[in-house]
Amino acid sequence: MGRPGDPPEGTPEGAPGGAEDEYRSVVFDESFVRAARLQESSARERVSDHAPAVRRRPPLRRGLPRQAMVLLLLLAVAFGTAVFMGLRHPYGAAPVKRSTEPLRMSVVPLAPRGPVPGAPDARTLYARSPAARFAVGLAGIPLPPSQPTAHFSDSQVLAALDTARKYVLHSALDPDVLTGREVRPVRALIAADQLDQFDRSMDAPAADGRHAPTGWMIRFDPARTALAADDIRTRGALTVTETDAATLQVVADGTFVYAVRAAGTEGKTPVSLFTVRRELTFRFDRDTLRIGQTRLTVSSTQAGPLSCTADTGAYLRPLLAGEHAEAGGPPGTDPYGTAAPALCGTLADTAQPRG
Q1: Spatial CA neighbour of 330 closest among 310, 352, 347
Q2: pLDDT tens across 33-61, in order?
Q3: SS3 for 104?
Q4: Do 254 and 168 form a contact (C-beta atoms < 8 A)?
Q5: Cβ distance 136 to 230 under 8 Å?
Q6: How far apart are CA 183 and CA 319, in angstroms?
Q7: pTM to 2 decimals?
Q8: CB 190 within 8 Å of CB 282
Q9: CB proximity list for 17: less than 8 A, separation 6 or greater
Q10: Is 260 exposed, middle or buried (0-12, 13-18, 19+ CB in 10 A)?
Q11: Bond before 305 cis per omega within 30 degrees
Q12: Which residues of the chain have pLDDT under 70?
């Protein structure tokens, strides 16, 4: 630090140095003069303007450099634009509304009025039934054109449709799931807050409208029923709607026709058809869309030929070729219990293969 009397910018170049220089205090360079707060008026100013002999100089301005000011201005404009666009963007993040609604499910057996028709092979039966006009596999449930909604982009709507279609594939068309060997492909698509309900359904099936495996997937009792053909006939549609600013809903409505025969009798027993009409309601928020999962909220299934007295909770046990529905109506319902009411319908003759 300089001593009192030093010029503001240090000792002038070429000036004698040393603390003992007796003229040091009277050596002034240009920077010292510019830094002075008092300035002597010139002779002309004192004569013409009656100015005082000495006047105080205004303080030097020490502001930000011009480049820094321009940079700050640009940053402020960019920040303001970002805030404005965030507020106006049609797909901005809406408050997350997480649903913990459990899956509600129903399975209604459809009982035939006579013996179940059969044939030596699946192709013959398909050709004689309404399924002759159906597509094979997932081709029967095409992806509809996706359009943005008020709060979800086109890509988000497409992601919801694609995940719902994958669920249909694994829960109704995957041979490993259909034959009871696997549940993991279906479980992988379920949102984390429904996994407890799913796992309880698999571990302890109950006819309470909440914990039946057949509400989550189509699967046959492997001890009784086998697939007779891999070409499952399908027809269905997917529809998507926005239920609120945070939720997309997809409904998958489809009919699936399976060729089945008695387990362990490949080529030795006739083949019959088993038809399932199924409607699933899926819910998506931005979190589940991002990770490719869904919440299944409603599952409604009608399937036949089945006996009204058949247990349809853990597995579906189709009536096979030549079999009749058991006499009597559906199992009794205890109005004091927690089980869902038992329902049963009649399988129309037109839904069966022609003789």
Answers
A1: 310
A2: 555 555 666 666 666 656 566 666 655 55
A3: strand
A4: yes
A5: no
A6: 24
A7: 0.72
A8: no
A9: 11
A10: buried
A11: yes
A12: 1-65, 82-99, 327-342
